[in-house]
């Protein structure tokens, strides 16, 4: 299936957004956010993912990323989404999740999509835009880091744990980043 946005040059730097089905606020639970963090760390160490900036919001993930030489960014993102989808569904079953309706929503999303069997966590595809200029990179970097402020979650970008804003402010973030 073709999507409006795609990775056309595997060597470019991209602004990518991937979203939970129905914009469900899944990542308000620490355990589910940790699945994403650990998976991104794995993709960095084992799959050639280079992260320049990132922000995990309650219902979606923004990143500025590229792939190391001889790796395909589209494959990394595909594998990341496939793994995290399964791991998050498993984790929901293991934790004391009070939102029992989550699995029902993910099950319903799978039933209306021929590619999924039991659960569907992520929306199909992902939004990707090649960052072709330094000005565009700066614009997307500011957008990513200011997203928690605009959403009313924090007053200062570097106070949001699930973001690279702390790295850019001189602190130690949850993920290593390559500075733009």
TrEMBL record:
GO BP of this protein: DNA transposition
Gene3D superfamilies according to UniProt: Transposase IS200-like
GO molecular function, one term: transposase activity
Residues in Transposase IS200-like domain copies: 9-147
Chain segments annotated as coiled-coil in the UniProt record: none
NCBIfam families, alphabetized: REP_Tyr_transpos
Protein name (Swiss-Prot/TrEMBL): Transposase
């Amino acid at each position: 299936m073709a999507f409006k946005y795609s990775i056309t040059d595997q060597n470019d730097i991209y602004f990518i957004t991937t979203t939970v089905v129905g914009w469900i606020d899944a990542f308000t639970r620490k355990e589910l956010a940790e699945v994403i963090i650990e998976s991104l760390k794995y993709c960095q160490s084992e799959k050639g993912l280079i992260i320049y900036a990132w922000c995990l919001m309650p219902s979606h993930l923004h990143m500025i990323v590229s792939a190391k030489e001889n790796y395909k960014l589209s494959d990394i993102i595909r594998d990341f989404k496939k793994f995290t989808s399964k791991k998050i569904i498993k984790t929901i079953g293991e934790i004391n999740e009070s939102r029992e309706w989550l699995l029902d929503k993910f099950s319903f999303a799978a039933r209306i999509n021929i590619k999924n069997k039991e659960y569907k966590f992520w929306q199909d595809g992902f939004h990707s835009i090649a960052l072709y200029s330094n000005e565009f990179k700066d614009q997307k970097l500011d957008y990513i880091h200011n997203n928690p402020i605009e959403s009313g979650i924090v007053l200062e970008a570097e106070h949001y744990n699930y973001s690279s804003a702390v790295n850019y402010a001189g602190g130690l973030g949850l993920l290593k980043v390559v500075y733009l």
